[in-house]
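seq as requested:
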Amino acid sequence: MDYQWYPGHMTKARRMMEENIRLIDLMIELVDARIPMSSRNPDIDVLAKGKSRIVLLNKSDLADPNGNKQWIRYFEQKGLPVLELNSRSGAGIKSIHGLVQEACREKIERDRKRGIVNRPVRAMVAGIPNVGKSTFINSFAGKACTKTGNKPGVTKGKQWIRLNKSLELLDTPGILWPKFEDRQTGRNLAFIGSMNDEVILLEELACELLDVITKRYPQALGDRYGIEIKEGDTEEEGREASSLLEKIARNRGCYKKGEQLDLERAASVLLDDFRSGRLGRMTLETPEG
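struct tokens:
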């Protein structure tokens, strides 16, 4: 299927961001560490033109540690300050203030020369749906400032959060862009739950995820579901995604009435296991492709 999702409220959210961009000094962009390139909204580059930038690799605890290192090198080579982050545990949070100061050094120095002291850096927090912006802000602030949820679209409007005398954050709704440049981007966003599952054929999505996992992390299926995949068995039936999904259904007892397998339920099990990290730490794309 063609993975596209751009509900009407995202147009309104983008317009709101455009109206407020003049108020900020810094764009804090959260990306999902499992798919750092696919989870970068190209519209943010347009909106943040001329502004200081930092990139936070959120949910880094769900991504392959080697993948995290590759992506950190990639963003650093692009001249973007970058940091691994786990908003739920707080890992990486303490390093953000230093990153903000580094990214806004020129602005802070200009203010100092003009005699402006203690003027806070105003930062916009942006990213795609379900990337963890609200959880990040709550963790950063040390208190529950925003609503959080595991479904896209929890944040509906803007809100300013004053963290301390030196930094204020503007939380914004998660937005996608009107048309994904390639099918793989849309597919990856569907994998991590940044699209509404109700508009997706879950069995087909699960089979595509199995294709990716068998290429990158075949051992994970054995560890989680007892499915053995031998390297080089590309033509074997056991390597076929639909057959693997059936095996997962049997392993997890996903049956309809009688002995009929419930493949939609098995697909939900697989996707939930991936999204929660129960399949292990995985990075689905690398800077090289």
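The CA atoms of residues 92 and 245 lie 36 Å apart.
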